[in-house]
Every structure is written in structure tokens, then in C-alpha cells.
Design a protein that fits this description.
alpha/beta, 6-stranded parallel sheet, 6 strands, about 15% strand, globular
Length: about 210
């Protein structure tokens, strides 16, 4: 594992290593890892354009204000959206694709622990952790492949904690948390490996 000091030294070189105007898209960035990663991207790149999704308009507005202080040269666009619906995900992605020709970073950290159902009948947690990730990645791959720099998909979940997949219960209904974590981690890792084969120029991280 790299030391935090080495990581910070590397980040400090970003303004001179990468061109201005990189475009990033953060999914689930109004708190936690997503929020801090978004703010770091704003800090270490010149004139970044950052789209980010969350459920709270108030939190989104605050992050926009924070980023404008961190880096006044950037553009920060909050999109309020419930990402449990594939249709809403498709619309958000299409709106961004209508505005941008390339994407340098797709960062997904959305997650929820709940046993409810989505409007499409999917397990709520699995919909957010697995299906939404797949949908965002597949939708944004064309723009990532066109980028001249970075071309990264970063998935923040529980990589390295994969476990058995119950093929009779892909939705992970009513299973213990430890088994649920291992199953969904494996599903996400396998999904990333499959998608990566279709886009070898893009780097995928779990």
C-alpha cells in the first residue's frame, strides 16, 4: 500500500501533469468517500468540470459552495436523482452525454443497506450497489473511451472482500449481512472484469 505522503506528492503534480478542463462524474458524492474524493479532484486539477449525483439538494448545494472555495476555476454541477431506477439513470447519463464529448473519471460510491424493493421489484440494496453501477458504467463507457487522459472507472465498495454467490438468490433476499457483502462484492468485481474486456483503454478499480 502506498503511503499517504507519496499519494499527496503525486496529487500535487496533477496541475502540471494533466491538461485543464478534465471532466469527472461522481455517483453518490454528497457524503463519505464520494464527497471527499470529489473535493480532492476539485483541489488537484485545473478548471475541472464535475458532475455529481445525490439525493439531498441541500447537501449538493453545500458541496458546490465548498468546491467553489477550494477551486474557483472549476465548474460543479449537482444532479438530484434517485438512482434506484434504471430509467432515471439513463436520463441523467444522456443529459451529460448531450453536454460533454469525453469523460475522464467515473467515480461510483453510492450504497445503501435496506431490504426493501425498488419500483422495478429489485432488492433495494442490490439495485444501488450492483445494477446502478452497471448501468452508469455501460452508459458512460463511450465518453470514457474518447478521453485523452485518465479514462478511469473507480468503484468504491468492498473490493477484496468477495464471497460466494448464491445463484438461486442473486437478489440476496434475507441473507446475513456478511454473506450479502461477499456476494455483492463478487458480483461487482465480475461485472467490472467483463466490462473491462470491451474497453481495454479504460482502467477499472474496485
Amino acid at each position: 500500500i502506498l503511503s499517504i505522503d507519496l499519494i499527496r506528492q503525486s496529487n500535487a503534480h496533477n496541475p502540471t501533469t494533466f491538461p485543464a478542463g478534465l471532466v469527472a462524474f461522481f455517483v453518490g458524492a454528497t457524503s463519505g468517500i464520494g464527497e471527499q474524493s470529489l473535493k480532492a479532484f476539485a483541489k488537484y486539477f485545473n478548471k475541472p468540470c464535475i458532475y455529481f449525483i445525490g439525493r439531498s439538494q441541500e447537501a449538493g448545494n453545500q458541496i458546490v459552495s465548498d468546491c467553489e472555495v477550494i477551486n474557483p476555476t472549476g465548474e460543479y454541477i449537482f444532479i438530484k436523482c434517485d438512482i434506484t431506477s434504471p430509467k432515471r439513470i439513463d436520463k441523467v447519463c444522456q443529459d451529460i452525454k448531450n453536454k460533454e464529448t469525453t469523460l475522464n473519471l467515473l467515480f461510483i460510491s453510492a450504497g445503501i443497506l435496506a431490504n426493501g424493493k425498488t419500483e422495478d421489484g429489485l432488492h433495494l440494496s442490490v439495485a444501488v450497489i450492483y445494477y446502478c453501477r452497471l448501468r452508469f458504467i455501460v452508459n458512460m463507457i463511450p465518453l470514457l473511451r474518447k478521453a485523452s487522459h485518465l479514462r478511469r472507472v473507480v468503484n468504491a465498495f468492498v473490493g477484496a472482500h468477495e464471497g460466494p454467490i448464491g445463484m438461486h438468490n442473486i437478489q440476496a433476499w434475507n441473507i446475513p449481512l456478511t454473506a450479502y457483502r461477499g456476494q455483492t462484492a463478487s458480483m461487482v468485481t465480475l461485472m467490472l472484469e467483463v466490462v473491462a474486456r470491451s474497453a481495454p483503454e479504460v482502467t477499472f478499480t474496485h
